[in-house]
Specification:
- By secondary structure, this protein is α+β, with helices and mostly antiparallel strands.
- It has two domains: 11-97 and 133-163, no CATH class; 99-131, no CATH class.
- Helices cover 44% and strands 23% of the residues.
- The protein is built from three helices and four strands.
- A two-stranded antiparallel sheet has the order 1-2.
- Helix 1 runs antiparallel to helix 3.
- The longest helix has 37 residues, at 11-47.
- The radius of gyration is 28 Å and the shape is elongated.
- The two termini are 41 Å apart.
Length: 164
């Protein structure tokens, strides 16, 4: 029977590098999630139908929450803009899904029973329709691979830093 020997060198250094990487995992995960969120944010801004650009200015990353399974990054139009003022983010849903143009016609109902003024009854009339100009769903569908690549690149950068 032949004898075989094995010697391992660099085990101490390898263990130190693995420990250094394990300490950086939460920060690396957050950076990779933000990188993916930035891809979606830029995609939405690129696809939104712009008139004044104010609605596009409300798109961004709002929250990064740690969940049981990882991180949750909230991306999209938000009620408050970067400067803290109320924004026009509510318009985004009308752009995404379309809407009816409705006119409210106020009509006075008869008062009855000797009353002088009747109650105002609001009747609505649809006078047109604005089509949908989706920008959120197409961004999620078309940019998910790019976002995953960006997230993966952030993790690979962290691994490369530890390797050195």
């Amino acid at each position: 029977m032949a004898k075989m020997s094995l010697s391992v060198t660099g085990a101490k250094e390898m263990r130190q590098k693995i420990e250094a990487l394990s300490k950086d995992i939460p920060e690396v995960a957050e950076r990779s999630a933000v990188a993916a969120g930035n891809v979606f944010s830029k995609g939405m801004k690129r696809r939104i139908k712009k008139r004044s650009g104010r609605t596009a200015g409300t798109i961004g990353i709002r929250d990064i929450n740690r969940t049981r399974g990882g991180l949750k990054v909230t991306v999209g139009p938000f009620r408050y803009s970067e400067i803290g003022k109320l924004s026009r983010a509510y318009i985004a849903r009308f752009l995404e899904y379309g809407h009816d143009i409705v006119v409210v016609t106020g009509k006075r109902r008869s008062a009855g029973h000797g009353k002088r003024y009747g109650r105002m009854v609001n009747a609505t009339k649809v006078v047109g329709h604005v089509p949908a100009y989706p920008f959120i769903r197409p961004t999620l569908d078309e940019d998910k691979d790019i976002a995953m690549r960006e997230a993966r690149a952030e993790v690979e950068k962290a691994i490369a830093r530890v390797k050195r």
